[in-house]
Amino acid sequence: MDNNVLIPRPETEELVEWIIANCKFPVNELKILDIGTGSGCIPISLKRRIRKADVWAVDISEAALNVAKKNASALGTEINFLHLDILNETNWERLPSFDIIVSNPPYVPGKDKEQMQPNVLKYEPGIALFVPDNDALLFYKAITRFAKQHLNTEGHLYFEIHEDLGNATMDLLQSEGFLPEIKKDMQQKDRMIRSGLKK
Ligand code: GLN
Quick check: helix, strand or coil at residue 30? Predict the structure, then answer.
């Protein structure tokens, strides 16, 4: 870990547990993608628990990917890491289709900066945290559209979300043809969404 990546949060661990709880074991073939992987905590945890899964992870930051690769090899996990900006649609064709797409993208509006813990601002990269105040769902919009093209019919899209943006994110997913389901974290905050495609 270094200051190129976020320190994993308990809510992200809950997201991983939710994904695993929804997997039908034994798993034979399962292709998983994590978008904006940072330290790699999501794909590494998933690969360790679902050994047969084919796990991919992408990030715009090469420095973050280097941390993720080190973590993956230290924990004996094989993950397909790719350096790629998901906001740039021309990159999408570099990725295949998946059964599970997961993302904990940047979602903190810049205006929230003042209320944040000094250690977060000092030791964690702004690129992994902040979004413009006027477009807080920037990454959710792009990833939802990507998922429409790259999620297998029976697959699921999982998001970690901002606690105040649950309804807005649900609306976005519904308008793009998904059936979203929201879940609270252990602090009773709206924190994650799982979506399948409408049949
Ligand atoms: N939950 C994190 C925080 O408040 C933010 C994580 C993120 O932006 N994806 O620090």
Answer: coil
